[in-house]
Amino acid sequence: MSSESITVHLVGDSTMAEKDPEERPETGWGTPFAEYVDESVTVENYARNGRSTRTFLEEGRWDPVVENLSDGDYVFVQFGHNDEVPSKEQYTPPEAFVANLGKFVEETRERGANPVLLTPIARRHFDDEGRLEDTHQEYAALTRDVAQDRDVPLIDADERSRALLRELGTEESKSLYLHLSPGEHVNYPDGIADDTHFSREGARRMAELVLDGIEELDLELAARVVRDEE
């Protein structure tokens, strides 16, 4: 085990965020992620439902992240779900999205910490012929571009999650998202079919995809990952 303590700061939207009791069993992947690191790592989850890069900054949510950064810490940044939808109040035009990601990267590095960019995790949208639709194409590509231009480690969660969804197929993949029948859970008495947000199992599988990315990038953090023995 690594002896020097570090913190992983998670910055993003509802797909990463902690959930209130009344939202469960909806689960952000940041919750199980925190269970996969050893005791030398603290995970601070700053992600919030409904945020884009723009609103996260405008609401002052980035400020405490920067203030709490120390040498050797990590900042995982994953946005796009809300930035990319022009009809949403949280919409962020492409140029501003790129600039905001650059701000997160630059200010993380100024504090001696390590930025990691993540593309947004796929929505579960299959067409009538069972083909998975690429719902994040533009903003995932923008995130990849920023990572390349600024030499930032990238975990392509969009690509990884789409591969998982294609592997599982139309029906089996429902278990990863918030699909509940009427009466199945007290928080959703009428049931719900949500193809953006995750079930507990889905959040765990998505966290494991992030862990795969950490290990493939050979980040120092990888030495502090603890996987359950199969």
UniProtKB/TrEMBL annotation:
Q: Where is this region: Disordered?
A: 1-32
Write down the Gene3D superfamilies for this protein, in alphabetical order: SGNH hydrolase
Question: Which residue range or ranges hold the SGNH hydrolase-type esterase domain?
Answer: 11-205
The family database entries (InterPro entries) matched by this protein are listed as: RhgT-like, SGNH_hydro, SGNH_hydro_sf
GO molecular function terms listed in the Swiss-Prot or TrEMBL record: hydrolase activity
Basic and acidic residues composition bias: residue spans: 16-26
- Cite the entry's keywords alphabetically: Hydrolase
Q: Which family does it belong to?
A: Belongs to the 'GDSL' lipolytic enzyme family.
Record-given protein name: Rhamnogalacturonan acetylesterase
Q: Source species, please?
A: Halosimplex aquaticum
